[in-house]
Amino acid sequence: MPVLTSLRLPMAAHVLPFAAFMACLVLVSAVQALPGGSLWVDSPEYWVYPLQTLLCGALLVFYRRQYALEFSKGTALAIVAGIVVLGIWIAPQALGIAPPRLEGFNPDVFAASPALYWFTVIMRFLRLVVVVPLVEEIFWRGFLMRVIIREDFTSVPFGTFRWGSFIAVAVCFMLVHSTADWPAALLCGLAYNALAVRTKSLAACVAAHALTNLGLGIYIMATKQWGFW
Question: Is 210 in contact with 226 (CB distance < 8 Å)?
Answer without folding.
Answer: no
